[in-house]
What does this fold into?
Amino acid sequence: MSGALTLLAIGLLLIASLGFLLRRRGSEEEDSVSWFADENLAISSARFGDRCKEQLDRIFGCEDWDFIRSSTSRRVQELFLRERKGIALSWLSQLRRDARTGMHLHVARVRASEDLEPFAELRLAVDYYTFQAECGLIAAILFLGGPMALRGMVGRAESLSNSLRGILEAALKPEAFSQRTRIR
Amino acid sequence: MSGFLYLMNAYSLGLGLSGVVLESLILVRAWAVGWFRKCPFFFAYLASVFVQNSFLMAVYIFKFKYYVPLYWYAEFFSLLMGCGVTWEIFRLILGRYPGAGRMASNVLAFVLIMVLARWLVSVWNGDASWAATLVELERNLRAVQALSLIVLALLIAYYQVPLGRYAKGIFAGYGIFIATMVMTLTLRASIGQTFEAAWVFVQPLCYVAALGIWCLSLWTEERSPVEESLPKIEEDYQSLALLTRKGLLQAREFLGKAIRP
It folds into this structure.
């Protein structure tokens, strides 16, 4: 029965992929456009290096928020949080765009290559989609709680994981194990 | 009941006739445009199906008792020709992309050999009757073709491979035909005789739908393909892949810095 279901799924998947391909916008013209964009892509991929730590700390850090929280009204605080969330989301989408551009450049350059290596390509694809998934997750957290909540959450998760590790280490110590398994 | 049988016969004959008409239309058009040279396998497949259908229709009308065994022999032959069509679709679409094409054709050849070997072993051991194994073999080979076409669709989407009108039409028509064949053959093998009525109804309809897609896409002349100006790959593949990977790792590093102070 599971074999039949698999085969039915294969049939449906093929129909879905054909539908996706047929709906692909301007697939016949797409190719020529991609080569024109190459120069811009190279410049764009170099922007990865411009995301300095200072900029990140400004967007995601607590200094500005601490100041606003201590010296302004609730309305100003709300406005600040809303704008900071918008900036963080826009930064994240820029990072995703840069990664997408980098992959686009790679694909456009290597697709005609005879030396294409399946495993290297697969590893790159996995890296790229993992990165996109991480960005999606972070965007969801940002959307729900804002940049301050993101760092706070990660901090809490780290301290939780540290304490869990501590408990596990303590539990796995031979003397602790022998004490707990002592026959009374 | 006899009214229903009469209707089914009329339906089968009608679809059979439409199929033959559409096939001849496509073949005449391909002959006029000179597409035989570009896609020899596809048009050889279509020509063989046209001859088979015309012959089978004559058998259906005049000597019905021979229709079923002849149908299965013809089906087996079309199945083998169909494997060639799948290969040709790959060649047509990935011909200019040798790396991706080689990757895909290796996978296709490997899976085909595996399925054929498994079928030969089951026939040799006498595990199943000829008719049952033929249905299973057809289902499995169609499933292999379907998987290959899914892989091709993924490669097209990932590498943004441009599709011409003819290539898109052949791929879409054959893909829909294969997908529906896999599903109907699976249901036929799982449900059995109760699906027979639906099989008689659905199977020719799917084929005529595929012929309709081919007819529509091959009818309008494709504008002369613009020669792709492939960029000079100055760097080798390894260094390009390394550069992209480095870029991705850097982006991930920034992402990490964003969440960890």
Observations:
- DSSP finds eight helices and no strands in chain B.
- The CA atoms of residues 122 and 128 of chain B lie 7 Å apart.
- Chain B has a mean pLDDT of 78.
